[in-house]
């Protein structure tokens, strides 16, 4: 079923509110999920709602958290998310880091004890839209095997980097596994197989069955994927005081820690100099002989956004949303 972005956004907000989430936090989450859909990252979109609500019902996610400041100075803030919805907590932390970077040229925001923060590009894009650079990380539940391992120990532990320039932006966002767990979830919802090399089953054997992959373990994206995932786990666990991946419940709504570094290019040189240098580099990059179009990281997401007029929801997901809406007396109306 194809639905309008504004229609699914309003439904998501009302659904979350009915389950006890504040309207402000519901709007943060809805904006995030819809943007993920429009960017073509449906694995981090509306498909996550049933898992978030299930965690609220079970009491592992707090619908009305009281975010507490653990430490703060002119350039940094570290908060406890009080088990709140990750998108809401991470967005608030990101916006504080952005304001600090505007005033002091650098801002760092981090959080522990929060739910799944979703697509990291959402946060670096907030920095980019303010003509700032953003670098964001998060550690996740233990669903990925270490390099050569047969059992899960690490999270997929993504990283995102965003850089602005006058003609657009560079926006990189990637999990450290061959594929994100969300894509495997989406394949399961659609009744599809996954490619070979993405995951192993509970016995450590390669599998193309998404159900077996979810019960087994994802595979790291080589040595670099393994090493970066390990370092992010240590950063978010040992440094931020969040839970390590192996301490988190292996569900689709939990997160260990989140951090974002925001830099103001004006500290280093004028913005015009920065932008001109950036644009000259991009122009030379596109002149490199190639059999395919040379794209910047994130360019496909922005093109998908420009083309997107609707959000497509599978029948299985629609059934779940209808059931969740019925339980709280919300009319299921999507256009």
Explain what you see:
With 335 residues, the protein is α+β, with helices and mostly antiparallel strands. The chain has a domain at 178-219: Hypothetical oxidoreductase yiak, domain 3 (Wheat Germ Agglutinin (Isolectin 2), domain 1, 2-Layer Sandwich). Helices cover 41% and strands 18% of the residues. The longest helix has 19 residues, at 86-104. The N and C termini lie close together (9 Å).
What portion of residues belong to β-strands?
Answer: 15-25%
* Strands, count: 12
The CATH homologous superfamily of the domain at 178-219 is termed Hypothetical oxidoreductase yiak, domain 3
CATH class of the domain at 178-219: Alpha Beta
Radius of gyration: 20 Å
- CATH structural architecture of the domain at 178-219: 2-Layer Sandwich
Summarize the SSE layout with pairings.
Blueprint: E1 2-3, H1 5-18, H2 23-38, H3 49-58, E2 68-72, E3 76-84, H4 86-104, E4 106-114, H5 121-128, E5 133-138, E6 159-165, E7 168-174, H6 181-190, E8 199-200, E9 206-207, H7 210-215, E10 217-218, H8 222-239, E11 257-263, H9 271-286, H10 299-307, E12 311-312, H11 315-327
Parallel strand pairs: 3-4
Antiparallel strand pairs: 1-12, 2-3, 4-11, 5-6, 5-11, 6-7, 8-9, 8-10
């Amino acid at each position: 079923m194809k639905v309008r972005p504004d229609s699914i956004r309003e439904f998501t907000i009302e659904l979350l509110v009915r389950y006890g989430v504040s309207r402000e936090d519901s709007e943060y989450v809805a904006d995030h999920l819809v943007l993920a859909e429009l960017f073509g990252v449906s694995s981090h979109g509306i498909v996550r709602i049933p898992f978030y609500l299930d965690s609220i019902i079970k009491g592992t996610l707090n619908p009305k958290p009281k975010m507490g400041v653990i430490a703060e100075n002119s350039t940094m803030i570290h908060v406890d998310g009080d088990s709140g919805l990750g998108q809401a907590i991470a967005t608030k932390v990101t916006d504080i880091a952005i304001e600090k970077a505007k005033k002091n040229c650098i801002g760092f925001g981090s959080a522990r004890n929060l739910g799944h923060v979703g697509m990291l590009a959402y946060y670096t894009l907030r920095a980019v839209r303010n003509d700032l650079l953003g670098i964001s990380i998060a550690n996740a539940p233990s669903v990925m095997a270490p390099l050569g391992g047969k059992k899960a120990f690490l999270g997929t532990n993504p990283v995102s980097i965003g850089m602005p320039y006058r003609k657009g932006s560079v926006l990189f966002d990637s999990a450290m596994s061959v594929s994100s767990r969300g894509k495997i979830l989406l394949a399961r919802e659609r009744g599809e197989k996954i490619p070979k090399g993405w995951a192993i089953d509970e016995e450590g054997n390669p599998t193309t069955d998404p159900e077996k992959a979810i019960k087994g373990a994802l595979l790291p994206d080589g040595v670099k994927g393994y090493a970066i995932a390990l370092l992010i786990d240590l950063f978010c666990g040992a440094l931020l005081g969040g839970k390590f991946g192996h301490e988190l419940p292996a569900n689709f709504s939990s997160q260990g820690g989140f951090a974002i570094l925001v830099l103001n290019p004006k500290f280093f040189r004028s913005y015009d100099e920065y932008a001109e240098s950036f644009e000259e580099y991009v122009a030379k990059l596109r002149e490199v002989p190639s059999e395919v179009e040379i794209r910047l990281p994130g360019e496909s997401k922005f093109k998908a956004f420009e083309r997107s007029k609707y959000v497509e929801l599978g029948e299985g997901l629609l059934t779940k949303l209808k059931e969740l809406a019925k339980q709280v007396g919300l009319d299921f109306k999507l256009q």
